[in-house]
Structure formats: C-alpha cells, structure tokens
Write a structure and sequence with these properties.
Blueprint: H1 39-44, E1 59-65, E2 71-77, H2 79-82, E3 87-91, E4 101-102, E5 109-110, E6 116-117, E7 123-129, H3 132-141, E8 143-148, E9 170-178, E10 187-195, E11 207-212, E12 218-222, H4 227-238, E13 245-249, H5 262-275, E14 279-282, H6 285-291, E15 298-306, E16 312-324, H7 330-339, E17 349-358, H8 372-390, H9 394-399, H10 421-430, E18 460-476, E19 483-490, E20 493-498, H11 507-519, E21 523-526, H12 543-571, E22 578-581, E23 584-587, E24 593-595, H13 596-600, E25 604-611, E26 628-643, E27 649-659, H14 666-685, E28 691-692, E29 695-696, E30 714-721, H15 737-755, E31 761-762
Parallel strand pairs: 1-14, 10-31, 12-13, 16-17, 20-21, 27-30
Antiparallel strand pairs: 1-7, 2-6, 2-8, 3-7, 4-5, 9-17, 10-15, 11-12, 11-14, 15-16, 18-26, 19-20, 19-25, 22-23, 23-24, 26-27, 28-29
Helix pairs in contact: 4-5, 7-8, 8-15, 11-12, 14-15
Length: 776
C-alpha cells in the first residue's frame, strides 16, 4: 500500500531482499514512489492545520471538564461565568436541543454530563467568549457541586459492580467455540498478560471551527477522519437534519486512530448556533489525553495445549477489555481480539471468551490494530513458553504451526486470501543478525540505558525474539463498506472527488497514481473533502486503498472508455486494442498514435463510480461466521540488548517481512511499515497512560513518553511478499496496522530470550527485565 507517516522517528530501512522494486525513474502511475502532494508544506511548516483556522468575528471556546472519574452532579451554576465581560454564552446539557447521546459505535455518550460523571475529563459545560483567556477563565468560574463516588476502575470488578451506565456495565460478550472443547494436549502452558493504555498521541492539536449558516444550519471545519459519521452525530445532537450540517475536513496532520474527538466538534457547533458567530476551539494537550479514545487496556489469560512435537491441539483464552466509560467501538475491537486470539496458527480446537466492559477509566476506542495487538502479545508469549517447555527454538515451534491459504480461522471462516506466513517467518529467520558490540570502551557503543548509560557492559545480554501478527482488512461483521468517487478530465488536468480523508495513509497520492496510469494525465488534483460529497467511510483498516481506491479506479476506467470510444469507432476497432501510456494513445498495430489532450479536443469528461467489497456476516452465538473480507500478515524478528541488573532495554534491530499484496508506492510503503514498527515499539517499552483510581496522571507529553529518534532501532525490511489478493482492487493489502500489532510481541520475545523472565506485561517495566537479584 501507499502511505506517509506521522511520528515515525529517525528509522532506517534496507531494500527488501529478493524483491525487485519497480523502476522509479518516471514519477507517474502505480508502482513508483510518487511523493505526497503536501509533503513539502508539512516539512517546511507551512501546512495549514485545523488549529490555524480563522474567521471574521471569531469567538473562542473552552470546555469545563470533570476533575473526578466518578461523581454525581448536584448542581451547575453558570451565572457568574455568564456575567463575565467578553463572555457570549455558556451551555450545558440543558442547551442540547437534540439527542443527548453520541458515539461512533453506540450512542451512549452525552455531549455534556447531566446527572453523573463517568470519567476524568468528561465535559460538563462550554463557554464562548471574545478571547481564549476569557473563555478559559469563564469555564473555570462555573461552579459545580459534586457528590464524589467511588470509581470502578478494575474491569474484573465491573461484572459485579452497580451499573455505571443505563445500558449496564457489560458491552459485549463473545463466547467462541471451535472444535472439541474437551480436547487436551500432551503439553500445556499457561500465561497471564496485561496490555497498557496506549494513547494515539496526535502531534497536531485537536481543533476546529464552527460557522453558523443563514439557513439555521452550521458548518464545522475540523480534521475529521470520518466526516459523514461526524455530521450525522452533530445533526442528531443539534436537532437538525443532516443536510443542515456540513463537515469540512481541513488540516489533517496524520492519524493512527479517530483523529478528532466529537467532544470538541459538538460543543463547537452548539456554541456557533447559540451565538450566531464563528467559534473556534483548540484543545490543550491535557484535554486531548483526557477526552479522546485510547487503546483498550486488556487482561488476557491463556492456556495452550500441544502434542509432544509442538503442534497445537487447543487454545483456551479469556480476554477482558476495558472500554472505559462508554462503548464507542469496543464491540468491534473485541470481535477482532476474539477472532485472532489464536494468531496465524492452525488450531484444531479453541475455547475463547471475550468481554468488553464499562469502567470509570478514560475512554477506549479505535486505535490502529485494536484488538489484534493485545492478543498478539499474549499468544506469542505462549508460543515462547511452549518452545521453552519442549526444548525447541522459538522460530521452529512457530514454523510447525503456521497457517496457510485454505486453513480455517477459529471463527470457522476459510482463509481464502494469500497467507504466506511460513515464507515471512523464514525470511526474518534467515536474515543476517546485527553485529555484537565490539570489545571497546563503553562510550563507543550504546548501552541499553542510552548514551553514557549507567549500566556496565558486562551486565548486558542480547536476546533474539520472533513474532507473527495478523489483522483484518476493512470493516467486519456485516459492515457495509462502500465508497464513491468522481473523476473529471479537462484539457491536460484531471480532478478526483472522493470523501476519503488523507490521514497519512497515502490515499491522495494513490488516487493521483491511479488516474495517471489509467488516463495518461500527469497533472492530477485531489479535491478537498466535505460532506456535500457522497460518503467514503472512516479512514481505518486500509479501507481507502481498497474501497476508495477501487472507486477511483472504476471511475477513471469509465472516463477512459469515454475517451477511447470515438477513436475506436473511427478506426473500426475495440477500445481494448488501444492503450494509454505516457500521455499518448496508441493502437496495437501502431496505426493510431495521438495524445490524450488531442483526443479530448477541449471536451470535459467525467464519471462517478462506487466500490463495495463482498459482504461479511456477524459472529454468531458460538463466535462463528465469515466476519472478515481479508487478512494481512507480518513477521518480525527483534534483537534487543538488556541490562539484566538495571532492567533497561535497547532494541537494536527490527527485521520485518510483510505480506503486502502489491507494492503501489515503494517509498511510502517502507515509510508506513517503519512508522508501524515504531508505534508498536512505543507500546512495548514506554507508552502507557497511567491512572490512579481513574484519575489520569501526567496528561502531557512529559509524563507520557513517546519513542524518539534515539529510541528507534534499525528497521530492516527483508521481504515484501507480492502475492495479490484477487478480490482487492490492485491486489494490495493494508501496510501499517500489522507491524503495529506484531512489533510489541517481538520486543517482548527478545527480552524473554535475553533475561529468561516471562514478560507478561506491556509496556515492559524495568523490574520485569531484571534477571538477577543484586544483594547489597
């Protein structure tokens, strides 16, 4: 696939061994490294982000958020705030004219808290004023009387706790049963795993601008990743029809999750409607950490059964996902976790139970690789335990169990897409290992504690670990995946109109490449996105490469037919006998040769097309069903140095082999993989939004550590398997989610190899990597 990346860090990658990448000299069409159109602006700092928006007569907004994770609201007094000079309006739940609830998956989240606070940072009121400082002061002046309640923060206690929400505490339970539930193996290993709360940590500020319209509607300018869903949520909350609300996507800096919290957009639109003025809100970093969705913290209990040769017999698992205060997309994340609980391995029998529950912790939702990442860390930990129990090498036990095309998932679905898992594993296994640090003074090599680390070289142990990961493509369980695109050609310029948001996935670049290849037009513009266009769906699970890219391709081919038909008719041949290349139209016999511009002859041609993949179905009461359109796979070998006295870890190298279907843009593909590996590295070693009894600790980029250039290892891409998925447009597969899923498990595997410790928690704490007790 294609892609640019946000926050990839300074990583390096070598060309894929054994892969002949396409000739990159002509920068047009599919298979070349066409640069992103906005790359220069983002690099130079001139790209207009949502926080840069401005309008005449602008007011500023601020939101009052709860300091408690759980409390009963006894009263809200806005009188003093409303009377402050410069304040135009103060709104609470009483001022929401439409539906009080919203949410991407389930509409269970209020615009403003009414009777009860359910998480730290929940919105209570919002203010519009003529200056940002005035708005913040007025929000702070709102007097709220609370009855503080005991928060429920342990998801294991949520089953017996009093209901935290009118819908109850249990969001979904999936009991998956596959094969014989009573089957046992000759060897059995157990494990308990905990995955922390990773924040998407968008580098650009979450911001937006709402502008009232003369017809009583409102326009919202924001960096949305799913504008039509946001429009519908806003319209329902404002008591308007969808055609009265317009969402304009602007200034998207990149996204690894839902980019903008509706808790920003909804107060904005409400304030604009109440004041009749444009209103702007730029969230602080603290607000972002408190309000937007995070990766689901997950508790996993596993039991693997195998025969004496190491072949899996049965997998038993219990998966408990902490959804936080509201459901959001937790049901979808749970479905992925349960379905992929056994990993890319052949498992004849499986008993898996998964639960997603509400707590008073920060909200969880869509973050790249949701569900699949958590279970990958667990099942790969189990494979390491089985290897140690049977005296096998970690790669060998994996190789004996890997799935291939034609095998069954534990959901009963047949894997019909290419699944070259064994090929990927062998590629990373056979790649040369990095050199060991030379026997030199410690200043000449990097200790796990960083430059001039406090450890001693003699306490450093090197570990080599492996992991195999998988993700699903597109939506699942009956999601109606559809996208619409229009392609116009006039003169020597083509325009693509599609509501697919460019979040760093490289869709806008791919759209240009598709039109260049199909129509032979070099200059291709991709129009901005707003909800006046037909919907294209959310920017996740590789959707826009497949569904939106497919729609662009179909529309471009329709225009191509319009262009070629008059020529084919004139020369008495079919359009299939004509080809377009380098801006020229030629016939198979060379009789016809003209340029695209000459063939257009001043006409404007256009066509609109849709792409809708084959349907899926929900999982049934036993967790069975054809729930997924397709799958993508990845293998990673991690080499890590661990100071076994201090527990400090340095990842030296990540070796990657990935199932990509088809390489559409080599440079962007490598960047996507590197970014995914680095995001996974953060989840493995440092990223965890910590809470104390539901209270977020240090909600800033000082307290929440992200990987930097000093943390990023060498990333070597040794194999990219181009086995095209026949049901996917272009045959391409998602590129960035599967390395995010796989790399944390690979890091944990390497630390296990270095220390002999079980490593059941991510991120890995220093004390977990200490392999010996130091006596004073």
């Amino acid at each position: 696939m294609t892609g640019t990346s946000e926050g990839a860090g300074a990583v390096t990658a070598t060309p894929a061994a054994g892969v002949e990448l396409p000739d990159e000299t002509p920068l047009r069409g599919l298979g070349v490294s066409l640069p992103s159109a906005d790359a220069a602006a983002k690099t130079e700092g001139t790209f207009p982000y949502a926080a840069d928006l401005w309008a005449e007569g602008l007011l500023w907004a601020a939101v009052l958020r709860s300091p408690h994770p759980r409390a009963r609201i006894l009263s809200v007094d806005t009188k003093h705030a409303a009377e402050m000079p410069g304040v135009r309006v103060v709104v609470t739940h009483e001022d929401v004219p439409g539906d009080a609830g919203h949410g991407r998956g389930t509409a269970d989240r209020p615009v403003f808290a009414k009777d009860e606070i359910r998480h730290h940072g929940e919105p209570i009121a919002a203010v519009a004023a003529d200056h940002p400082d005035t708005a913040r002061l007025a929000a702070a002046a709102i007097a709220v009387e609370y009855e503080v309640l005991e928060p429920v923060t342990d998801p294991q206690l949520a089953f017996e706790a009093e209901p935290l929400h009118p819908d109850g505490n249990l969001i979904r339970h999936i009991p998956l049963r596959f094969g014989d539930a009573d089957a046992v193996g000759e060897v059995m290993v157990e494990g308990l795993y905990r995955i922390g709360r990773q924040d998407p940590a968008p580098i650009g500020a979450e911001a937006g601008l709402a502008v009232p319209r003369p017809d009583g509607g409102v326009e919202i300018y924001t960096a949305s990743t799913d504008p039509h869903t946001d429009r519908d949520l806003a319209a329902a909350s404002f008591g308007l029809t969808p055609d009265q609300v317009k969402v304009v996507v602007t200034g998207v800096p990149g996204a690894t999750a839902d980019r903008e919290d509706p808790g920003i957009q909804l107060p904005l639109g409400l304030l604009a409607l109440r004041t009749g003025c444009p209103v702007k809100l730029a969230a602080t970093r603290e607000e972002s950490f408190l309000a937007h969705a995070h990766r689901h913290p997950t508790l996993l209990r596993y039991r693997h059964h195998a025969d004496a040769d190491g072949r899996l017999v049965k997998v038993e698992a219990q998966i408990l996902m902490d959804a936080g205060a509201y459901a959001d997309t937790s049901a979808d994340a749970l479905a992925a976790a349960v379905s992929f609980a056994c990993g890319p391995y052949v498992v004849p029998h499986a008993v898996v139970d998964g639960w997603a529950v509400r707590t008073n912790n920060p909200p969880s939702g869509h973050v790249r690789g949701e569900g699949a990442m958590q279970v990958c860390a667990a099942y790969e930990g189990q494979m390491d335990k089985l290897a140690a129990r049977l005296g096998l090498e970690p790669h060998e036990i994996r190789l004996r169990n890997v799935m291939a095309t034609g095998d069954l998932l534990p959901t009963g679905q047949t894997v019909t897409c290419p699944a070259p898992v064994a090929e990927l594993l062998l590629a990373v296994k056979e790649a040369p290992l990095p050199e060991l640090p030379k026997d030199a003074p410690e200043a000449e090599w990097l200790l796990p504690g960083g430059p001039e680390g406090a450890g001693e070289p003699g306490a450093v142990r090197r570990g080599v670990g492996y992991a195999l990961g998988m993700v699903h493509m597109l939506g699942a369980e009956g999601t109606d995946e559809v996208s619409t695109a229009t392609v116009k050609v006039s003169g020597s310029v083509a325009t693509v109109i599609c509501a697919a948001v460019e979040t760093g996935s490289g869709f806008s670049t791919l759209a240009r490449q598709i039109v260049q290849e199909t129509l032979g037009v070099d200059e291709v513009h991709v129009a901005g996105v707003d909800t006046d266009q037909p919907p294209a769906g959310p920017a996740c699970h590789g959707r826009h490469t497949w569904v939106s890219g497919g729609a662009v391709e179909r529309a471009a081919k329709m225009v191509r037919t319009q262009l070629l038909q008059p020529l084919a008719h004139k020369f008495g041949m079919s359009t299939e006998l004509l080809q377009i290349s380098d801006g020229k139209i030629t016939s198979y016999d060379g009789v016809l040769s003209t340029t695209v511009a000459e063939a257009l002859d001043g006409k404007e041609l256009w066509a609109t097309a849709q792409c809708r993949p084959h349907p899926t179905e929900p999982l049934d009461d036993s967790g069975q069903g054809d729930a997924f359109v397709g799958l993508a796979f990845c293998a990673i070998r991690c080499v890590a140095d661990v100071d076994i006295e201090l527990g400090t870890i340095r990842v030296v190298e990540m070796t990657v082999a990935q199932d990509v279907g088809r390489i559409l843009n080599p440079a962007q593909l490598r960047t996507r993989i590197e970014a995914g590996v680095t995001q996974g590295l953060g989840a493995a070693l440092m990223e965890n939004l910590r809470t104390t009894r539901g209270q977020v600790r240090h909600p800033d980029l000082t307290g929440y550590a992200l990987p930097t250039a000093l943390d990023a290892p060498d990333i070597r891409i040794v194999k990219l398997v181009e086995e095209r998925d026949v049901v996917a447009p272009f045959g391409a597969k998602p590129a960035s989610a599967v390395p995010v899923v796989t790399s944390p498990a690979a890091v944990a595997s390497a630390v296990r190899a270095a220390t002999g410790r079980p490593i059941g928690r991510l991120p890995i704490r220093p004390q977990a990597a200490v392999a010996q007790v130091i006596q004073q």
